[in-house]
Amino acid sequence: MACAQTGSGKTAAFCFPIISGIMKCRLANDLSSMPRVSSVAYPSALILSPTRELSCQIHSEASKFAYQTGVKIAVAYGGAPIGQQLRILERGVDILVATPGRLVDMIERERVSLKKIQFLALDEADRMLDMGFEHQIRNIVQQMHMPPPGARQTLLFSATFPDNIQKLASDFLSNYVFLAVGRVGSSTELIVQKIESVQDMEKRNRLVDLLRHNVVNGKLALTLVFVETKKGADALENWLCRSGFPAIAIHGDKVQMERERALRSFKRGYTPIMVATDVASRGLDIPHVAHVINFDLPRDVDDYVHRIGRTGRAGQSGLATAFFSNKNMPMAKALVSLLQEAKQEVPSWLLQCSESSAPGERNSGPQRPWRSNYGGRDFRNAAEPVADNYNYNRYNSTYNNYGDRDFNNVPQQVENYHYNSTYSNGDHSATSYIDTSLEIQNSNNYSYDTTNNTVFAGSHNYSGSGLLEGSDGNGPCGYESVVPTGWD
User: Fold this and answer.
1) Domain shared by 18 and 85, yes or no
2) DSSP string for 212-281
């Protein structure tokens, strides 16, 4: 179960090991595991994603990674003719990228078998288990002859992993590792975030003001505008076009051809403004998106993180603007925490709103409770301390055996943490890995939102002795402090 920032390369993180594993297996079996022409496809790896656009993107990226390796990759998704997809599968497939609905259809037609699956990957896993796919995922993984956990390798990836979704996802895993990289569940500091107080009746005028200033070299920069409803997306698209702004909309009621045309037109800059619902908030990697505007704020801070993650990807800078109205008051506390964590300016009026609003409230519908760590910790480690004052330097532990500890003994082990938190006992045993790709700094005043048993991407910066110069060796793995470095 892996958690990492948006735009950090999660697709490559699960594609490369899968491709490598298939090639090693093929060499070990003297090429006898090569996919053969058959009316029934037996893929070795299955990658599931929640949307058609994300499936196509994963297929495109994985095909680049597997170039000239002989590993065959196919994609299956709804909204496109199934006959063409079946003909491609008949020629043999090693890695199948699919949406759950179309995959179930193919399995029921007895054109795909999961009996030989060695690798199962769920991209945007938290969204898939939280948006109504849970029944289909359980059906695919548990009822359709897929090898059980342990016999296959299972990889769950997302930028956010709330505790309740972790509990659901753990049903598909066996003795798994929870890996966290970077500022999990949060946004990179490369994205400049601005929250503006704009009431509903004023939003369109304010949007026009932003678009008029969003010009680079005489051309409109790529701008992604998120709205709450499909009807609202169509209405805003029509209004922008009538106002002289080239815009196009994408949402779930569009047929697949329209959705693909909208993405293609936006990427190429023919229509530099795309109005979208949350169908475009997850996973899509669109180069050179300069500005993300939350015309309507989402009801969940996780969705906000994913939305603004469409800009500032792969080390690039970006700008995200959100219109905050009275109906968004329940989001105030979470937004303040997120902005502070990403070292962004917090408007004074937003601080006042956060103090007067109850955390996690919504206008309607079910919800997850507001979380200060946005699902960036292993829920099995119930005793894992959370720094209420966001001071990272207080994370000092005297034990170094992170790779082999029993979580049943956490209450005894956490006594050495210098925290004022309340600990509760965990009831699972697991192995935790610590990635050594860290940038270690001897900092006594670095602040950060949460303290988790996580890893941070960066570079090595330590003395040849293995200890930080000036360190007393009492920190994690002998270092005084571990601080995130972003994705530079």
Assistant:
1) yes
2) HT-EETTEEPEEEEE-S-HHHHHHHHHHHHHTT--EEEE-TTS-HHHHHHHHHHHHTTSS-EEEE-GGGS
Query: Do 120 and 200 share a domain, yes or no?
Result: no
CA distance 28 to 109: 32
> In a structure prediction context, what are the per-residue pLDDT tens digits for the chain, which is 488 residues long?
888 877 778 899 999 999 999 999 888 877 665 666 778 999 999 999 988 888 998 999 999 999 999 999 999 998 888 999 999 999 999 999 999 999 999 999 999 999 999 999 999 887 788 767 788 888 999 889 999 988 899 999 887 777 777 887 788 888 888 888 876 555 567 789 999 999 999 999 999 999 998 888 778 889 999 999 999 999 999 999 999 999 999 998 888 889 889 989 998 889 999 999 988 777 677 888 889 999 999 988 888 888 888 887 767 788 999 999 999 998 899 899 888 888 888 999 999 888 876 544 434 334 443 344 445 567 777 554 443 333 333 333 333 333 333 333 333 333 333 333 333 333 333 333 334 333 333 333 433 343 343 333 333 333 333 333 333 444 444 433 334 444 33
Do 174 and 196 fall into the same domain? no
Tell me whether residue 427 is in a domain: no
Answer yes or no: do 293 and 346 share one domain.
yes
To 10 degrees, what angle do helices 52-65 and 256-267 make? 60
Identify whether residues 130 and 245 lie together within a single domain: no
Query: Quick one: 314 exposed, middle or buried, by C-beta within 10 A (0-12, 13-18, 19+)?
Result: exposed
Domain boundary among the residues 299, 328, 356 is at 356
- pTM given for the model: 0.60
**Any idea what the CATH number is for the domain that residue 325 is in?**
3.40.50.300
Based on the fold, state whether residues 229 and 114 are members of the same structural domain: no
Q: Within a domain: residue 399?
A: no
Looking up tokens 């530099």, which residue turns up?
272
Domain of 212, in residue numbers: 191-356
Question: How many domains in the chain?
Answer: 2
